[in-house]
Write a structure and sequence with these properties.
The protein is an alpha/beta fold. The chain has 15 helices and six strands. Strands 2-1-3-4-5-6 form a six-stranded mixed sheet, sandwiched between helices.
Length: 307
């Protein structure tokens, strides 16, 4: 038995190293290592049959053998020669987060071919994708006692970055309502910057990466001008919407914005019941009744209005 084992070991040592290099290079350069291993298993069976009991080993376990490619002069970064870009994380923001979140972010960035750097910067993140820099503030805890600091920081940063987004984690209905009230209380403008509410931290960072990647692709395809045009049209439509809705007696800008977010178009508002308006917005019962009468009672909407 010992002689048999030594013969197999000697046989394995005499394998053609160049051929083994090709197999391991295919694995190291693959974006889907698991699929590549399945494709190359016949070759790997030959290379490892003397060293591993491949009849009983799974592909997933075989992944542990992949680092052998280092011993043949291959560098793992060969997988990322065409990386998605660079992510710069604010060191102050990092130090204030739970280590589990930082580990998730690091793993998620690595999986999406981003290089991660830690630098003391103004925003929480800066992504560089396709030659375009995108800044983010990531509010992981909605603290009602710290809202002034949050919005003052947003005002300052929006003047410094052409592409700037604020991702806010709002896991509860109460926090979402607090955010909506605060958004208008502190005089935020639609699209300056864009706020992205999310329900959990992981979803929030995934949104950040998707936004950065999308803008990078748009930059490469020279589609930024189209996005700006669409954004201008959206802002114009919002101004028209607000102008129409605020022409209804006792309905102000805050009410119009709340109706737009919760109910939708003017047609949808006209069809919405009083109960629906009360359940989905912070409008008073009196204002909900005014809306219902305005759209459904000719005597009301055709009569002259005096403020």
């Amino acid at each position: 038995m010992e002689n048999d084992t030594s013969m197999k070991s000697s046989s394995y040592g005499q394998r053609d190293a160049a051929e083994l290099n090709l197999v391991m290079l295919a694995i190291a350069c693959s974006y889907d290592i698991l699929a590549t291993l399945r494709m190359l298993q016949p070759s790997l069976d030959v290379f490892y049959s003397e060293a591993l009991p491949l009849n009983n080993i799974t592909i997933e376990q075989l992944l542990k053998t992949v680092p052998l490619c280092f011993s043949y002069g291959l560098h793992w970064k060969s997988r990322h020669q065409c990386g998605a870009g660079v992510c710069i994380m604010n060191t102050l923001w990092r130090d204030g987060q739970h280590p589990a979140l930082i580990n998730f972010i690091s793993s998620f960035l690595h999986a999406n071919s981003f290089r991660l750097n830690f630098v003391p910067i103004g925003p929480d993140f800066i992504f560089n994708c396709g030659g375009l820099s995108v800044a983010f503030v990531f509010v992981t805890t909605w603290d009602r006692n710290n809202l002034l600091t949050i919005f003052n920081r947003v005002r300052k940063l929006r003047e410094q970055f052409a592409h700037f987004y604020v991702v806010v984690t709002l896991p509860t209905k109460e926090q979402n309502e607090s955010f909506v009230r605060s958004y208008f209380k502190f005089g935020m403008e639609f699209g300056r910057p864009t706020f992205v509410p999310v329900q959990d931290l992981e979803m929030g960072f995934e949104k950040i990466v998707k936004i950065a990647l999308s803008l990078g692709v748009c930059k490469q395809r020279d589609a930024i001008s189209k996005l700006k045009a669409e954004r201008r049209q959206l802002v114009q439509r919002m101004h028209v919407f607000n102008g129409v809705v605020t022409s209804i007696p006792h309905i102000d800008n805050h009410d119009a914005n709340a109706l737009n977010q919760a109910i939708g178009s003017i047609e949808a508002i006209a069809k919405a019941s009083k109960q629906c308006i009360l359940e989905n917005t912070d409008l008073s019962e009196e204002k909900a009744d005014i809306l219902k009468r305005f759209f459904r009672d000719p005597k009301f909407y055709l009569s002259p209005k005096v403020d």
